[in-house]
Amino acid sequence: MCGRIIQASGPLRYALVDGLDVNDSRVGNLPRRYNGAPGQDLLVIRENHRTSERSIEPLRWGLIPNWTREARPKVRPINAKAESIARTPMFAEAYARRRCIVPVDGFFEWAGRKGARQPYAIGMRDGSPFALAGIWENWKNPETEEWQRTFAIVTVPANALVGTIHDRMPAILRPEDYERWLGPEAGAQDALKTFPADPMRIWPVSARVNFVREDDAALLEEIALTSSR
User: Fold this and answer.
1) pLDDT (tens digit, 9 = 90+) per residue, 43-96?
2) CA–CA distance from 96 to each of 102, 132, 183, 189, 200 (Å)?
3) Are 205 and 119 in contact (CB under 8 A)?
4) How many Cα neighbours within 13 Å face the side chain of 128?
5) In whole angstroms, how far apart are CA 90 and each of 51, 84, 99, 139?
6) 124, pLDDT greater than 80
7) Within 13 A of 140's CA, how many CA atoms are on the CB side?
C-alpha cells in the first residue's frame, strides 16, 4: 500500500529526467506537495507510445481504465501489485502500453492498530529524490467528453526497513531501470524489484499527515514517540 507521497523539492521536476529526453514544458505551476494524496494532480514522467515523446506533467492519482463507461467511477485504484499487474484486467493494458515514473522525495506509511495508527515518513538517507514505478491511463468522461489522465503506483513486497511497519512498499526504480520500465514490455517486470533497505531511512511524523488539507514542510519533521505508542 502506498497512499501518500512527497513531491516537495524544487529541482525534483528535473532531477530524474537527465538522459531520458523529457519535455518539461507542461509542468506549469504545480504546487509542491508535502502530503500528496489520491485524487490530486501529481507529477509523472510518461512516454507516449505512439510518438515515443517523453514528458513530465501532472496526472490525477487514482487509475481509471480507458474502457470505463461510468461518468463517476467508484473504483479508482491508487496501487497495483507487481506480482499480478500483467494479468489483472484493471491494470493489464496500462502495464503493457502505458508505464510511467513517479518522482518523489519520499512516501508515508502507517503502523499500529486502527484508531491509534502512527504515521511514518520514508525516504533516502541522503535526502535525494527517487523514482517509483507507475502505470497511467487516458480516460474520456462520457458525460462531459473531457479527457483525464490518471495513474497508479506499483507496489512490491517490503524490504527489511519498511517491513517493520508494513508488508508492502512502492516499487522504487534504480536509475539503470528507468529505460527498462519505460521501454518494451518484455523487460518491464525485471525492473520491479524490492529496493534495498540500506540507503533508506524511516522516521515518525505528526498525525497531521492523516488530513489531506495539511500540506506543509513541517509535516516532514521527526517527532518523538511517547511510551504509549
Assistant:
1) 999 987 778 888 888 999 999 999 998 888 988 999 999 999 999 999 999 999
2) 17, 17, 10, 10, 30
3) yes
4) 11
5) 24, 11, 14, 13
6) yes
7) 3
155: β partners: 81, 170
Q: Which residues contact 115 (CB under 8 A, 6 or more apart)?
A: none
- CA 52-53-59 angle, to 5 degrees, is 115
Cβ 109 vs Cβ 119: under 8 Å:
yes
Do the beta carbons of residue 48 and residue 136 sit within 8 Å? no
- Dist CA 57 CA 13 (whole Å): 9
What residues form DSSP beta bridges with 121? 108, 203
Strands, E assignment, the chain:
5-7, 22-23, 33-36, 41-47, 54-61, 79-81, 99-104, 106-111, 118-124, 130-140, 147-157, 168-170, 172-173, 200-204
Please name each of the domains of the chain with its CATH number: 5-220 (3.90.1680.10)
- Structural contact between residues 103 and 7, judged by C-beta atoms closer than 8 angstroms: yes
Output the pTM of the full model: 0.93
∠ CA 134-88-68, nearest 5°, is 80
Q: In what order do the strands lie in the sheet with 106-111?
A: 33-36, 5-7, 106-111, 118-124, 200-204
C-alpha cell at 179: 529505460
Question: What is the rounded CA–CA span in Å between residue 12 and residue 33?
Answer: 11
Instruction: Give the total residue count for the chain.
Output: 229
Quote the cell numbers at residue 180: 527498462
